[in-house]
Amino acid sequence: MNVQVQPPGTARDPLIAALARYVEALHDRYPDGPDQMRQEALDARGNMPRMRKSDGGRAA
Is residue 7 left, alpha or beta, with left meaning phi > 0 and alpha meaning psi from -120 to 50? Predict the structure, then answer.
């Protein structure tokens, strides 16, 4: 039986690899960090159209 021992944290876990790709994509999208991400989210909320008032009708 041939057993290979790796130091902790060096395993090729697909979840860890996906998380690393996600973090890299966030860094590419928001190079100025979390403050830029928050500001863009607040700006996007300000551009949302107002909801129309319901006419009191029932949902389908």
Answer: beta
Cα separation, 12 vs 6, in Å, equals: 10
- Could you tell me the CA-to-CA distances from 45 to 14, 23, 31, 42, 49 in Å, in that order? 34, 24, 21, 5, 9
Contact status, residue 21 vs residue 13, Cβ threshold 8 Å: no
pLDDT in tens, 3-50: 555 556 556 789 999 999 999 998 998 888 888 878 887 777 777 666
Instruction: Answer whether 44's CB lies under 8 Å from 37's CB.
Output: no
